[in-house]
Design brief:
endonuclease activity, mainly alpha, 6 helices, two-stranded antiparallel ribbon, nucleic acid binding, HNH, HNH_nuc, zinc ion binding, binds zinc ion
Length: about 170
Amino acid sequence: MGPQISSHLLSDPLDHYPVLDLSKLKSLNTNQKTFRESYGLELYRQTGQTGCAYCGISFVDSNSNNFTHWLMMSVDHVVPRKTALLLSIDQNIWDSILNLVLCCRSCNDYGNRDRQKVPYQPEVVNSPEAFLHWRRDTFRYRFQKISEKRAHDLGTYQFWVPLPDSTDSD
Ligand SMILES: [Zn+2]
């Protein structure tokens, strides 16, 4: 049995966030450069999320790689910032924890390559409830796309790191 692409089943981190009062959403001001000290830390403190929303890698595991994993962390806008700006959505909605997940750099990179194809629903503008539905659909869409790209790269990875041959004996 080869390595699994991920044992991380589709689980939207938002389902584990504290119950959000949609009338009090606030922008975390993600234009700041120091996300680990500012909005990334704020996101972690408010939600307890400690792993990549897409592949499940932990950023804080207590093993020798933990600092390297932590450095691979980024913050992802599920509904992309550009799309939200294009639709004139209130920044207190699209830049709130509702629309933010922790994400590793490689998954973020996979997702960015697919940004143009995010399902487009202009009727959601400035209704937090409608935005929430849109954001959930977009997360599922991106989760699927990112999983497909990881699976493709896993095929290439096996040229670099061949699977152990279980028929070998010594
Ligand atoms: Zn990831």
